[in-house]
Design a protein that fits this description.
The chain is mainly alpha-helical and 59 residues long. The chain has one domain (15-58). Helix content is 53%, strand content 0%. It has two helices and no strands. It is flat, with a radius of gyration of 16 Å. The relative contact order is 0.08.
Length: 59
């Protein structure tokens, strides 16, 4: 299950939100047919696209 927390500038997360994030960080990723594990080639392409996006964003 996915939970989304929106924290605005100047706002601090609640203790409950922080605990949920810490607990989620400890869990393993569960892949399925909707979100399969990326192959090494796909992972490399994904990382390259992120790097290009960040370069454009910072320019």
């Amino acid at each position: 299950m996915t939970k989304i927390f929106t924290i605005k500038n100047g706002q601090t997360p609640t203790q409950e939100q922080l605990e949920e994030v810490r607990a989620a960080a400890k869990r393993e990723i569960q892949f399925d047919e909707d979100s399969p594990e990326l192959s090494p080639a796909m992972l490399k392409a994904f990382r390259c696209s992120i790097a290009q996006r960040n370069r454009k964003k910072n320019a």
